[in-house]
Write a structure and sequence with these properties.
Layout: E1 9-13, H1 19-26, H2 32-35, H3 43-51, H4 57-60, E2 62-69, E3 74-84, E4 89-96, H5 105-119, E5 125-131, H6 135-143, E6 147-158, E7 161-171
Parallel strand pairs: 4-5
Antiparallel strand pairs: 1-2, 2-3, 3-4, 5-7, 6-7
């Protein structure tokens, strides 16, 4: 069985040369509310992260992977974070760069992350935190078999506007 790849895409470890591409995603302020961010990481922060990549996601509590087409073209980023070895759970997030959205890449990345999390990390549940305003992500996770298991009303604050945070979960 091949892990982290199929006939269309592959997920790979972050390399130091990926810092600028990571920065593009982090600098996309449209997704800050969805990710609980208030400012982007600097390129230097991301270079440091990429240069000090920890290949043990259980020890580090996170795993960030680059999503590529088989041609080597970067299409997005996939994250497992808040990984708990004790509970065998993690949160998952997918970011697809604008030109590649709505082509099924996010769904494929999510499926590959689920297989990896179940088979190699021995995780049993993945969950996602999604702003109620992020209709595309809600649809992705619902169509991928995730169940809406909770809502944190008015959890997110943007200026004077509040939004609920939705929690989706899936036994893998």
């Amino acid at each position: 069985m091949r892990f982290l790849e199929d006939d269309k895409i592959r997920l790979r470890a972050v390399e130091p040369g990926d810092a600028d591409r990571l920065w593009e995603a982090e600098a996309d302020s449209r997704q800050w509310l969805d990710n609980g961010m208030s400012a982007p990481f600097s390129r230097e922060n991301l270079r440091h992260y990429a240069s000090n990549y920890d290949a043990d996601p259980i020890r580090s509590g996170q795993l960030r992977l680059i999503c590529e087409k088989k041609t080597g073209e970067t299409i997005g980023i996939a994250d497992l974070y808040d990984i708990s070895a004790t509970n065998r759970t993690a949160l998952v997030g997918i970011y697809i760069y604008e030109p590649y959205r709505l082509h099924g890449y996010a769904h494929t990345c999510l499926e590959l992350m689920e297989i990896y999390a179940r088979m190699l990390l021995n995780l049993r549940i993945l969950a996602a935190k999604i702003s109620e305003t992020n209709k595309v992500s809600i649809k992705l996770f619902e169509n991928s078999g995730y169940e809406h298991v909770g809502t944190l009303p008015q959890w997110l604050l943007m200026g004077r506007e509040t939004h609920s945070l939705l929690i989706f979960s899936k036994k893998i």
